Amino acid sequence: MLRNLLKLPSSLGHALSTHNVCPRGQSLKLLPLLSRNTKPYSIITERKKFYEDVSISQGEGGMFEINLDRRKLKTPGGKLFTAPNEALAIAVANEWDTQKDTLKFYSMHLTTLCNTALDNPTLRSKDQMITAALKYLETDTICYRVDEPPSLVELQNNEWDPVLNWIEDRYNVVIGSSTSILGPEIPKATMDTFHQHLGSYNFWSLIGLEYVITQLKSVVLAFALIDKHITVEQAVLLSRLEEEFQIGHWGNVEWAHDVDLYELRARTAAGALFVHFSSESSTVKRKLMQD
Question: How many whole angstroms separate alpha carbon 54 and alpha carbon 3?
Fold first, then answer.
């Protein structure tokens, strides 16, 4: 159980995915799975659980740290883990607290995202992250359409057009759709508007938003999810519309389909939560942190 989540001064570090743990008495380094370009990070998917109690503490500058049996966690890059607010610290601590006898690092999405934000292993600036995220708009899931069979065309129009219309109205932009293999031609004014909008997010929030975009392969669906226009379940189903259509016609390996669906939901939900938690400035009341 999560005990004494808020203890005053103590420090700890951790992050979001795969981690490497040092011997007893030393700082803990956790190695994430998130980024495609995180070459220094080892991919460790599981490890025997080595702690009993999880807590958070407030360190210097009001930052929050994660403690496993009072030992400090560090990022893969050797930095002390700090979360910018209680909400995110509690969410990360909960990932550690709910692990059983074996730590399944691949399921600890918030921890991985934190590691990535803290270490920034690819040394990208905000502008580089925004540019990379907006590249997905050129081949956005709901903008790239098929022209047959008619039943799938109708399904795409019925399910995707309302979300596309919403984002065009919401941000006063033009996006459109296309059956061309090149996708629609996105106006420069649209790209400029989205670039400016993404620039309003802090670095941590951009990490989460880019993660959601890569999961859904869609800027449109990611924006609709973060703006709470659609739910995680809706975002995932819309991103898999063509696949679900094919499964409906040809069948599937049921267990494999379910696992893929649940994992995508988990990753997408974690990314969305990370965006909101990273933007959170208010303090979570202590009574919510008690067992």
Answer: 6
Q: Return the SS3 of 181.
A: coil
Ramachandran region, residue 70 (left: φ > 0; alpha: ψ -120 to 50; beta: rest) = left
- Which token pair is 238? 């819309």
Q: List, by residue range, all CATH 1.10.3580.10 domains of the chain.
A: 126-278
Bridge partners of 144, per DSSP, are 178
Q: So what's the pLDDT on residue 290?
A: 46
What digits encode the pLDDT tens for the residues 42-93? 457 788 888 899 999 998 888 899 998 978 888 878 899 899 999 999 999 9
CATH fourth-level superfamily of 126-278: ATP12 ATPase (1.10.3580.10)
Contact 81, 118 (CB under 8 A): yes
Burial 49-63 (b: 16+ CB within 10 A, else e): eebeebbbbbbeeeb
Cα distance between residue 170 and residue 167, in whole Å: 5
H helical segments located in 200-288: 203-216, 219-226, 232-239, 241-250, 254-278
For residues 239-260, give the mean pLDDT: 78
- Name which of 160, 223, 213 is nearest 190 in CA terms: 223
The Cα 279–Cα 281 span in angstroms is 6
Q: Please tell me the total number of residues recorded for the chain in this structure.
A: 291
Half-sphere exposure of 73 (CA within 13 A, CB side): 34
CA distance 217 to 225: 13
CATH T-level fold of 28-123:
ATP12-like (3.30.2180)
Structure tokens at 112: 């991985």
Helix, strand, or coil (residue 130): helix
How far is the C-alpha of 49 from the C-alpha of 63, rounded, in Å?
26
pLDDT, tens digit, for every residue of 148-189? 899 999 999 999 999 999 999 999 999 999 888 777 899 999
Percent of the chain with pLDDT over 70: 78
